[in-house]
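User: Can you predict the 3D structure for this chain?
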Amino acid sequence: MDVATHSSLTTSFLCFFVQRGVITGSSNLPLLGASLAKQLQILQAVKADVFISGSKYEPLEAELVRNNIQVAKTMQTCPIKCAQEWITHSEPHSA
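Assistant: Here is the predicted structure, written as structure tokens:
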């Protein structure tokens, strides 16, 4: 599984669960043609803090920002490396 070259083309969200800067688990959430509203609901249901994408998809990104989900860009194609890169370069983690 690779990071979609365009977030509007993704077929699933791979969510990583992070505690104190350590990845503690993951879950692959299929989209199956989900609408923009449904994609947002999925991310809210797992309490997503950040959405990492390889490209811009402004309709989704605008909704994410409006709902307090940070949007980050990556050049990585491997999902776990994307997550690790974001953890390494994000704000210091609270204990």
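The chain has a mean pLDDT of 81. The chain has three helices and four strands.
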